[in-house]
Write a structure and sequence with these properties.
Layout (H helix, E strand, L loop, with lengths): L19 E2 L3 E4 L4 E6 L2 E2 L7 E2 L4
């Protein structure tokens, strides 16, 4: 499980804004994107980004 403390050290790769964590994603509300978390590792490369409105 990804620890909450990590959010003090990582930011959105697009806007450098704060991220929020839910069960399976890190979410940037400013950019309206989310990064998947797999096996407790956030996948924060451009090709892994999911637009929130794509759901």
């Amino acid at each position: 499980m990804l620890k909450e403390e990590i959010l003090d050290f990582i930011v959105c790769i697009r806007c450098k804004g704060d991220l929020k964590k839910d069960e399976s994603y890190l979410i940037c509300n400013k950019c309206k994107i989310k990064y998947p978390i797999k096996n407790s590792i956030p996948h924060m490369l451009e090709e892994h980004i999911i637009a929130i409105d794509e759901e």
